[in-house]
């Protein structure tokens, strides 16, 4: 006796019920997967917001660095250090999320670059009035640019991953 014979002998009512049950299960599975993907997008968007805040904070550090280099006002130096502390706080907030999203290496690189920037600025800024060398200034600018580039790379990486999730949802 073949295995599919009981199905063939089902009455129409049972066949319709089985078809509806399978359809509901399929829709439920797709809905669960879609919900999971949307929740993942929501987490990633929150992460990107924090990275954007970090990028803006780094740009403020750079702005006050430039102002201090041009005008030598102590307030600009103090603001730059204040924004550097904010950037460090943001990096601490990002630590767990960076690991979750596979950005631990980028996070560590950003953290070490910020430390290098703060060290260079600490040596350079107090000596501004004494005439810091152009090489020291260029090194500080390069490190600051590296900070900006690293934060932008993290944003680009996460946005690309969000687009991948959206494409997957569209195919569903």
* Oligomeric state of the chains present here: single chain
Output the helix-strand order.
HHHHH
Count of DSSP H/I helices: 5
Rg result: 27 Å
The rough form would be described as rod-shaped
Category by helix and strand content: mainly alpha
How would a textbook summarize the main sheet? Answer: none
Terminal-residue CA separation = 38 Å
The low-confidence parts are none
| Chain-averaged pLDDT | 88
* Proportion of beta-strand residues: under 5%
- The count of DSSP E runs of length 2 or more, i.e. the number of strands, is 0
**Helical content, roughly?**
over 70%
Give an account of the 3D structure:
By secondary structure, this protein is an all-alpha fold. Helix content is 87%, strand content 0%. It has five helices and no strands. The chain is rod-shaped, with a radius of gyration of 27 Å. The two termini are 38 Å apart.
């Amino acid at each position: 006796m073949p295995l599919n014979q009981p199905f063939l002998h089902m009455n129409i009512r049972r066949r319709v019920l089985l078809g509806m049950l399978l359809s509901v299960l399929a829709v439920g599975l797709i809905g669960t997967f879609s919900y999971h993907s949307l929740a993942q997008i929501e987490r990633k968007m929150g992460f990107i917001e924090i990275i954007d805040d970090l990028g803006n904070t780094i740009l403020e550090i750079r702005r006050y660095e430039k102002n201090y280099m041009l005008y030598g006002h102590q307030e600009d130096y103090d603001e730059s250090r204040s924004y550097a502390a904010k950037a460090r706080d943001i990096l601490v907030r990002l630590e767990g999320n960076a690991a979750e999203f596979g950005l631990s290496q980028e996070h560590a690189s950003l953290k070490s670059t910020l430390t290098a920037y703060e060290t260079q600025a600490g040596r350079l800024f107090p000596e501004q009035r004494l005439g810091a060398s152009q090489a020291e200034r260029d090194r500080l600018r390069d490190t600051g640019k590296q900070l900006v580039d690293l934060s932008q790379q993290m944003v680009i990486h996460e946005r690309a991953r969000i687009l991948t999730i959206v494409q997957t949802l569209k195919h569903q």
